[in-house]
Amino acid sequence: xxxxxxxxxxxxxxxxxxxxxxxxxxxxxxxxxxxxxxxxxxxxxxxxxxxxxxxxxxxxxxxxxxxxxxxxxxxxxxxxxxxxxxxxxxxxxxxxxxxxxxxxxxxxxxxxxxxxx
Length: 117
Hints:
Number of strands: 7
Order of helices and strands: EEEEEEEH
Shape: elongated
Strand order of the largest sheet: 1-2-3-4
């Protein structure tokens, strides 16, 4: 049984692993950060946030500076679905943003399957 966790991710309770909701690709164990099994693209923030004032005239343009922040995008390696994007300082490790009580999820999945039968 798969339990949907986000628009892009589910946990396969039979295998206890992260899977892509679009293509079913397995991203790794559910006990670990799902981002470890994804493709990573560190994007220059100026590609997304254009300068508000002329950068030829002013040092501060009201746009994020790449020395201070990167936009990190995570993609499914099989279908290229964008799974997550986060703003991080350069060199910062990926944020571990989801950690679940897998024993409780297994019990919930068992109750759901029992009620469906």
